[in-house]
Amino acid sequence: MIVANQVKKTPKGTQKNSGRQKNGKVSSSVQAKRKRTGILTVSAAVILLCGALLFNSYNLSNRLDEYDDVVAGLNHQISEQQQESEELVKESDYVKTEEYMEQVAREKLGLVKENEIIFQKETG
């Protein structure tokens, strides 16, 4: 049995070999070309996806670094605020003491204890 390729006419009047045998099967060379084209297409798609993933991972890495910097700054602010809060608690406790009340009475009101001598500079 002799197998001949079918010839199709294209709209321009040229002949084109479809790669099909008389029995309708595709020849092995056409199958190999299609397989190679399919493999190349899939390979190109995989390479493009890998490139996109690398690009996105680079962008995400940069964003992660920026967020780490923000977190470090916020942690620093938190520690400063905690320190200031501790100082305010200490000052609040001091304001409630007799020592503070006596200090304010001396400085702002000019009061003195009994039998206390005050020395002042002469203004001249």
Mind explaining what this structure looks like?
The protein has helices at residues 28-95, 98-109; strands at 7-9, 15-17. It is mainly alpha-helical. The protein has one domain. The chain starts with 6 loop residues before the first strand and ends in a 15-residue tail after the last helix.
Keywords for this entry:
2 helices; 124 residues; rod-shaped; two-stranded antiparallel ribbon
Distance between the termini: 138 Å
Stretches with pLDDT under 50, minimum 5 residues: none
β content, as a range? under 5%
Give me the side-by-side strand order of the main sheet.
Answer: 1-2
Got a strand count?
A: 2
- How much is the average pLDDT? 84
Shape category:
rod-shaped
User: Which class of secondary structure composition applies to the elements?
Assistant: mainly alpha
Indicate the radius of gyration in whole angstroms.
46 Å
Q: How many structural domains does the protein architecture include?
A: 1
- H-E string: EEHH
